[in-house]
Amino acid sequence: ANNNPEHFLTTNPHYDSRIVGKYCEKRDPTLACVAYKRGECDEELVDVTNRNSLFKLQSRYVVERMNPELWALVLDPENQFRRQLIDQVVSTALPESKNPEQVSITVK
């Protein structure tokens, strides 16, 4: 598993996404995102991407999840990273999306 941790994290169903994600955060925050994404650990993923300025990753995740509560969390006016996220959604996540439903939910 060491030589391809991303493959392991996406294909192995036998781990707790929160525990493994937390473990990965200090070593490689992008791997933590892989674990959190698998487990749909929205708040953890938003937190680690905010702390590490991984707004491209965060924007892709939020668009793919199509979850109104998650949108409410990241678009909260109190979120100091709101602007960075919106910029990445517009410049990266939406242009990459091949799913019209993702786009329409995002635009709402």
Give the termini distance in whole angstroms: 40 Å
**Low-pLDDT sequence parts:** none
Principal-axes geometry comes out as globular
Number of strands: 0
Provide the domain count.
1
Describe the largest sheet: none
Helical content class: over 70%
Mean pLDDT: 93
Number of helices: 8
> Topology as H/E string?
HHHHHHHH
Strand content: under 5%
**What structural category arises from helix and sheet content?**
mainly alpha
Radius of gyration: 14 Å
Pfam families: Clathrin
CHCR repeats: 1-87
GO molecular function, one term: clathrin light chain binding
Fold and architecture overview:
73% of the residues lie in helices and 0% in strands. It is mainly α. It has one domain. The model has no long low-confidence stretch (mean pLDDT 93).
Break the fold down into its secondary structure elements and pairings:
Layout: H1 5-11, H2 17-27, H3 29-38, H4 42-51, H5 55-65, H6 68-74, H7 82-96, H8 100-107
Helix pairs in contact: 1-3, 2-3, 3-4, 5-7
InterPro entries: ARM-type_fold (IPR016024), CHCR (IPR055358), Clathrin_H-chain/VPS_repeat (IPR000547)
GO biological process, one term: intracellular protein transport
GO molecular function, one term: clathrin light chain binding
